[in-house]
Design goal:
heterodimer; A: mainly beta; six-stranded mixed beta sheet; four-stranded antiparallel beta sheet; 12 strands; globular; B: mainly beta; 11 strands; 0% helix
């Protein structure tokens, strides 16, 4: 079974500052990794995903993440945040093979609050 | 079209009512999902349909009854719900699971359900 740990439940930052949202996972098999964003009263939108290949993944809205297999991490970064980035961010993992490959396992989420 | 639509956006119902939630996608996805999301929590998987057949039921109470009438539509029938069932109900779709390991799920905006 896989699990996801998002180390920070809340991250407050000032506008135009850099931000890193941390995600660690645990799995006995190879995984796919995802970051989703949820704006207030909306569904989840995919920011970026790691399936294979380059460990640095670029997504929408200027976000990027780096897959580190040895540290089992997939941290999300943005060099300069905007007020509009205020949202809940979920890290998720799925097995790349096997009987549980239908299942997205989510972390508990990190609330990013960007202050002026 | 990369959109998953859900109706209604909001629903208030009494514990004796019967209501239905609807979800539609036109991306040709043959896997569809229902999730329940409580406030400040990650989504919890309820049901998975693969090729219009129920393949996964995550031990959901029988007062929730899913239906997949065709490859584009997914319904969730609600009956005799409890106040603790109040939540955001999210629908998602993906490539068919049999031939594709889960790559990403596309989420709808959700239905905010309140049970009085």
């Amino acid at each position: 079974a896989q699990s996801v740990t998002q180390l920070d439940s809340q991250v407050p930052v000032f506008e135009e500052a850099p931000v890193e949202l941390r995600c660690n996972y645990s799995s006995s098999v190879s995984v796919y990794l995802f970051w989703y964003v949820q704006y207030p009263n909306q569904g989840l939108q995919l920011l970026l995903k790691y399936l294979s290949g380059s460990t640095l993944v670029k997504g929408i809205n200027g976000f990027e993440a780096e897959f580190n297999k040895s540290q089992t991490s997939f941290h999300l970064r943005k060099p300069s945040v905007h007020i509009s980035d205020t949202a809940e961010y979920f890290c998720a993992v799925s097995e790349s093979s096997g009987g549980s490959n239908y299942k997205l396992t989510f972390g508990k989420g990190t609330l990013l609050t960007v202050n002026p | 079209d990369t959109e998953v639509t859900q109706t209604p956006k909001h629903l208030v119902m009494g514990m004796t009512n019967k209501k239905s939630l609807k979800c539609e996608q036109h991306m040709g996805h043959r896997a569809m999902y229902w999730y329940k999301q409580k406030a400040k929590k990650p989504p919890e998987l309820m049901f998975v349909y693969s090729y219009e057949k129920l393949s996964i039921n995550e031990s959901v109470p029988s007062r929730f009854s899913p239906e997949c009438p065709n490859s584009s539509l997914l319904n969730l029938h609600l009956h005799a719900l409890q106040p603790e069932d109040s939540a955001l109900y999210l629908c998602a779709s993906s490539q068919p699971l049999v031939t594709y390991p889960l790559r990403e799920q596309f989420f709808g905006p959700g239905t905010r359900l309140t049970v009085l």
